[in-house]
TrEMBL record:
It comes from Paeniglutamicibacter kerguelensis. It comes from the Bacteria. InterPro entries: P-loop_NTPase. This is ATP/GTP-binding protein. Residues 1-24, 53-73 are annotated as: Disordered. Gene3D superfamilies: 1.10.8.730, P-loop containing nucleotide triphosphate hydrolases.
Amino acid sequence: MTLVEQKKRAEKEKQEPALTLTKRDVTRLEKAARRAAPRKAREPGFLRRLLDEGAQNRLTPGDTGWNRPGGGPAGYAESPFEVQGSSVQVCGFWPFITGAGLPLIGAPLGRHLLRNTLVTGDPIAWFTAGIVSNPSAFVLGQPGLGKTSLVHRIIAACTARGVVPMVLADSRPDYVPHILALGGQVITFSPGQGHLNPLDLGPLVASLSLIEDAKARGIALSEMTSRRRSLMEGIASMMLGRPLRPHESTCLAVAITALDPDLQHAPVLGELIDYIRSRPEILRTNVLAYDDDHEYDHRLQDLLDALINLGPSGAYGDLFSQPSDAHITPGVPVVFDISGVNENDSVLVAAVQSLCWNLGSATVSAEQHLASAGKRRRKTYLLVMDELWRILRASDDMVHFIDTITRLNRGRGIGQVMITHTMNDLKLSKDHLTSTAWGFVERSAMVFLGGLAPSEMGNLEEVFALSGKEKQLMTDWTGEAVVDPKTNRAALRPGAGRFILKVGKTPGTPFMTHLTDLELQVSDTNRAWEMVRS
């Protein structure tokens, strides 16, 4: 462009009017610019924070409560200002001076009888929180005062936290409706109802061969082999009414191992009997009857008699001689319904209870081995031993078996609740067995004491240092209900649902449990009287 052309263009631009924006156009353009600019991130509101808090962990309550269906989280919860000190130091402060209460950890048990505050606690929650050193509880009280209902409350609360309840010998049965309501497993076992092979510890035990580490695999398989031998030896001794002799015990152990050395294909009782009758060389050597068939048969005749009595030709038919109809499903609430077993047959009761308890403990132990090897997720179990007196009097072996559980439960991820009527139930036929049974109460971190007569307390006063007020409460709770003359029906007994929670020798916490309508449906222990009550 020439110089002349440039000058003409400049003059022309000067003559053209300049572009002018109105105020409305300026406002419109500023709004458009603000909308196009990146926005700053807003801080989440209260509701969003509440939802995020519940999404992070729905198994434990947050600062505002249980944020899940039926949990009812609080909209706003302000922590109160607390000051600790002696009554002399804080007497001038106002208002609301009160003593320290129990920690709000565990199952909601009921309201405090003196302060009307909430009392919470269960053996597993308190153990994991470090409040007690042993995940065990013992419940004592006369019949009809709510012991089983209290345990139902603990089961429900523990299940909500992921704990798996196991009722391995329900003889009434009181826990079947509750386990069904939890979506659990009910295994019915009695003559004419189900079969359980005592040589079959379940498919979880068979999967122990999947553990890669040879040493860990060997330890797990050795333990399960020992469990199976001890179970069969115990049941055989119950049939004989005496302990097995050394050569009988050796023969039984060798025969079981020879039939199933790797725990992969459990034999049935008939196969075990036929194998011993065949006089294999390995058994001849251990029985010291090398070439003498008569001596071999003579030394093992009593053992064979016991095994045959358990078999299909014996007194119990095919109860123990057929393959198991059902196995325990790991990680699912389970109950063994043994209510069909004849209570007058003490030998059968002892054998059934021993089998059920051994199957349950073997499943838990096998799962722990697999969890340590990274094959399964580790679970926590709650064993419920109701009507403990029946279990202890079934056989001496059950006393020692439960004693082992109470001593080793922490290492196996097991908590337990034991229930019986009085300390007199723990007085067994032999003094050393009585001492062992009383040790169950002494080692229990939590003891729930219901209505007891003075003569039924046993050594409770020595172990837990009961005060005069606590003993008075327990004796008052044994009174009978008062009849209403208008309806000719009695109210609840004075001690129904009332307990004292003792932890060591510290003062007890009296509370009362109120059951909800849903709990009443699954914890009714008087179903046998439904027709009379209606």
